[in-house]
Amino acid sequence: MNHICDKENKYLLGVYKKNPLVVKSASGKYIYDEKGRRYLDFFSGLSVCNFGHRHPKIISAIARQLKRYLHISNLYSADVQSLLAEKLVSMAFGSDGGKVFFPNSGAEANECAIKLVRKYGATSGRYEIITFENSFHGRTLATLSATGQNKFHKGFEPLPQGFRYAKFNDLSSVKKVFSQSKTIAIMVEPVQGEGGVRPADESFLRGLREFADEKKILLIFDEIQTGFGRCGEVFAFKRYGVKPDILTLAKALGGGLPLGATVISKKFSEVFKPGDHGSTFGGNPVSCAAALAAVSLLDKKLIKHINSVGDYFKQKLIGIKEKYPSLIKDVRGLGLMLGMELSIKGRDIVNDCLKKGLLINVTQDNVLRFLPPLIITKSDVDCAVRIIEESISSKF
Ligand SMILES: *Cc1c(COP(=O)(O)O)cnc(C)c1O
Predict the structure, then answer these.
(1) Lower CB count within 10 Å: N or C terminus of the chain?
(2) SS3 assignment, position 331
(3) Rounded distance between C-alpha atoms, residue 24 and residue 183, angstroms
(4) If you take atom 6 of ligand 1, which residue's CA is the nearest one?
(5) Distance from the CA of 249 to the center of ligand 1, in angstroms?
(6) pTM of this prediction?
(7) Which residue, 159, 163, 207, 153, is CA-closest to 185?
C-alpha cells in the first residue's frame, strides 16, 4: 500500500482528498483491499456504480461490444448509440419525443446544455442562465461558473460570464435575478448533491416550471447525480411531476464506464446544426453498450426496492439523530440519496467508518452523504447503520 501511495503522491496531481484505501477488486456492493479486507460500499464510486460493481449483465454487454468495435468516431453510425438515445428519450419525455447528445462526462453534458440555450437565445440577445447557491454543475470553466459556490471559483477568475445565482427553494429570489432582456434559462439539480444533499421543494420546482413557461425560457434539470434510480424514480423529476426542457445525465448512466447525455425535448432538438457541437469520444460504443444494459436493469421492481430500502435507511438515520440531537442537525434526501448534517466536521467519521469496513462520503465538511448501490438490502442498511452509530457515539 505504502509504495502505491508514495508513487501517487509523487506523480498524480494532488486535486483529490484521498481516503487511505488501495483497491484490489470490487464486486456487487463490496470493495476489497490488498489484504483481502472487505468494505461495504455506501458510496458507489460517487453514484456511478448504481447496480453494484461489475454487474454480470453490464459486464457481458461490454464483452459483446468489445468483440465488435471500441471506437469508430461520430462520423460513422454505431447502433448502440441510437438504441440508447431512443431509450433515454422515451424514459425522459415519453411519446413527446426529443433528441440526445452524448458527451463523456457530467460537466460536458451541462456544457452542451449551456451552449444549446445560448444558441437558442442568440436570436433575441438573451444568454443569462440562472443557477443556484450551493449548486454543483462541474469543473470546466463554464460549468464552474454555473456552480453557485464561491469556494470553487476562487483563483480561477475571470470566469465565463452569463450566470446569475438565486437562492435554492426560493422562487422570489429567482424572480429577482431574472432579466426579461437577458435570461434564457434556469438550471437546477432536483436534489443538490455536492451542495449537501438538499432536495428541492415540490412547490419550488413546480414554480420554476410555471415561471419558465410564463417567461418563455428553458428549464434545465441537472440529474447527473440524482438520475438513474438514485432518488427512487428513473429520474428525480418524475417524483416531482415537473418536466424539464433539457435533462443532463452522466455518473450512473454508463454502468461504470464514462458516459454523459444531454437529453433535449422535441421543441429544442433542432437548435444545433451540424458543426455546432461535438466530441471525439462522446457516446463511446462500449460505454453505450454498458448503458443499454444498465437501462434494462432499472425496472419497476428495482424502483420499488429503492424506495422501500431508502425509507428504511432514512428512518434508521432519523433514529440515530434522535439519540444524538446535539451532534446531528438534520437527515434528508430522496430514495437512496441520503444525507446527515452534523454539527461537527464529518471527515473523522468517514475515516472511522472506513476502518470499520464501511465506505461513506462527506460533503460541505459536515454533511455525511450516503450513495449506496441500489441493490443493497435492509440487512446491509442494518450493518451500515450499526457502524455509523458506533462512529458517531464515539464523538459524543
Ligand atoms: C458529478 C456532477 C457533475 C459533474 O460531473 P463530471 O462527470 O464530474 O464532470 C455535474 N453536476 C452534478 C449534479 C454532479 O453531481
Answers:
(1) C
(2) strand
(3) 49
(4) 106
(5) 9
(6) 0.98
(7) 163
Residues sharing a CB contact under 8 Å with residue 386, sequence separation 6 or more, in sequence order: none
Q: Which of 47, 225, 235, 279 to mutate to test the pocket of ligand 1 (most atoms within 8 A of CB)?
A: 225
Taking alpha carbons only, the member of 313, 384, 312, 310 closest to residue 349 is 384
pLDDT in tens, the chain (396 residues): 578 888 999 999 999 999 999 999 999 999 999 999 999 999 999 999 999 999 999 999 999 999 999 999 999 999 999 999 999 999 999 999 999 999 999 999 999 999 999 999 999 999 999 999 999 999 999 999 999 999 999 999 999 999 999 999 999 999 999 999 999 999 999 999 999 999 999 999 999 999 999 999 999 999 999 999 999 999 999 999 999 999 999 999 999 999 999 999 999 999 999 999 999 999 999 999 999 999 999 999 999 999 999 999 999 999 999 999 999 999 999 999 999 999 999 999 999 999 999 999 999 999 999 999 999 999 999 999 999 999 999 987
> Which of 43, 48, 136, 247 has the most ligand 1 atoms within 8 A of CB, as the residue to mutate?
136
346: which 3 cell numbers? 464529518
Residue 133 DSSP one-character state = B
Residue nearest atom 10 in ligand 1 by C-alpha distance? 137
Query: Is 105 a pocket residue for ligand 1 (Cβ < 6 Å)?
Result: yes
Residue 104 CA: nearest ligand 1 atom is 7
193 Cβ inside 6 Å of ligand 1: yes
